[in-house]
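Ticket closed. Logging final result for FAD/NAD(P)-binding domain-containing protein.
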Amino acid sequence: MASPPASPNVLISGFGIASTVFAATLLRAYPNATITIVERDPAMRLTGASVDIRSSAVDIIKWMSHEPAIRAKTTKETGVEFVDDAGKSFATLMATGNDNIQTMTSEYEIFRGDLARIFWKEIEDRVTVIFSETVESYVQKMDSVLVSFANGKAAASYDLLVAADGLGSKIRGMMLGTSVGQHIHDEGVYASFFVIEKDLLNGSKLAKWYNTTGGRAIFLRPDPDPRGRTRGHFMNSAWPSDTAARAKINAALRAGNEAYMQLVEETFADVGFHQTPEILAAMRSTPDFYASKFAQVRAPRIQDGRVVLLGDAGYACPGIGTSLAIMGGHILAGELLQHNLDVPAAAKAYEDLMLPYAKSEQSTLGDYAMQMLNPQSAWGLWVRNTVLWAVTAAKIDRVAVWMMGWLGLEEKKIKMPVYPWPEVKA
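Final structure:
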């Protein structure tokens, strides 16, 4: 068998959080690594919802020395208040102030684009990025993987091919010999995200969460932009048995933004929340509308020799997906270092550590939790609202957080190996 290269030549498909964390971490281990990223879009996508950082990912951003920059760019959201038609709050869940025990509002609530920029800034002059390009096919050889491209880039060989190309990863389908959608588990929750060029929260740092029948919800979240803006979200959910509703929403997602906005307008036209007309109008004028579904990727494997699935491509999981992407990027780079660039061995070690942890976060219970938080019926809404009011009025939520802190109970973390990272020069 050929000896490992002195520094790796890596191709990453997909330009996002998982890929930039992996690239940055690999460059700490191998400063002379050659890293190429191909991205199907014409530019880095910086739109989308706020994301949060939890569990072992918190330790990683601290290790990367990015915590101060991330805290500086957080949304400053202090909690979530549940409101009625008139916008009056009946229950509020506050952030904890403890990054080891977090509620709906994370201590690191940050917009996806801002987080991506922070990771990218560390490596922007050390990585080659090719936009409007995708992987067409690949062939594995004994000591390399030969990759062919779809849009003009010449075929080339790499030591490792990393698929960080998201929920609909073509490379996952190639690697597993299945259709792209076979291992996607649709949770039946669909959301759109957009900027509202007005502060609809009137300076408050509490997000507003409004629900009505039919599993429909409206979110208003604070935006730290000093110009005074709000982030708006429309969300609707459908039970697994409601195949017609799911098919209709998925068809609109596939058709693009215009089709999805029309669906939102149709779905929310009769909603009684007092700010609905203004939010619908803002959706139409936003410069960065984005829509997606909540879905898990339940891949049986996340590696095959010199091909690896990273982040959402291998183990998408709403709620903790960004944290899994950060963990995965760190662990994959760490295993390459630990195994002295024996790529197949490192990939297997990465899978053995990352896949069981990701699967433990992907319980079907999460589907029902979202459905219970966004009920279909008036009766379901009454029950949910009553429970939320009782829990917060009695401060049960705060007592529970205090007890967890007192007992030293933290969020479940992955058993991270101690990798032999070289010292970072000041």
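The CA atoms of residues 163 and 309 lie 5 Å apart. No further action required.
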